[in-house]
Amino acid sequence: MSDKIIKPWGYEVIIEQNDKYVMKELCMFTGKQCSYQYHEKKKETVYVVSGLLRVTFKESALILKPGESVTIETYTEHRMTAIETCTYLESSTPELDDVVRLEDDYGRV
């Protein structure tokens, strides 16, 4: 596994990165959230391992429990928020820098 990459909401570890896909393990701490964002090329699937994760979209939201997943298509505005500290896996296409931030709690817009 790769080194832990510290983020303002928790951390991520890149498990595998190649020209076809990326697999990450992410930990998000209670009450923290990532940017409200979308991707122009990247498609991702999120699978919750532990905790509770809210995934907010433009006009809806869902709460994922351990064993549940969602796939987020390109150009879909979304944000993940930890209802309680959670660990989740993210499998995506390889475009790691493809993030268009619309809102950000940490000044990264």
In short:
This protein is an all-beta fold.
Topology:
Elements: E1 4-7, E2 10-17, E3 22-28, E4 36-38, E5 44-57, E6 61-64, E7 69-72, E8 78-92, E9 100-103
Antiparallel strand pairs: 1-2, 2-3, 3-8, 4-9, 5-6, 5-7, 5-8
Structure, described:
With 109 residues, the chain is mainly beta. The protein has one domain: Jelly Rolls, CATH 2.60.120.10. Helix content is 0%, strand content 58%. The chain contains no helices and 9 strands. Strands 1, 2, 3, 5, 6, 7 and 8 form a 7-stranded antiparallel β-sheet that branches. It has a two-stranded antiparallel sheet with strand order 4-9. A hairpin with a 3-residue loop joins strand 5 and strand 6. The N and C termini lie far apart (29 Å). The mean pLDDT is 96.
CATH superfamily: Jelly Rolls
Secondary structure category: mainly beta
Molecular shape? globular
CATH topology: Jelly Rolls
Total domain count: 1
What share of the residues does DSSP label as strand, in percent?
Answer: over 45%
Mean pLDDT: 96
Distance between the termini: 29 Å
**Main sheet characteristics:** 7 strands, antiparallel
Number of strands: 9
Helix segment tally: 0
CATH A-level architecture: Sandwich
Share of helical residues: under 10%
Reading off the top of the CATH hierarchy, the class is best stated as Mainly Beta
Query: What string, H for helix and E for strand, traces the elements in order?
Result: EEEEEEEEE
Radius of gyration: 13 Å
The parts where pLDDT drops under 50 for at least 5 residues are none
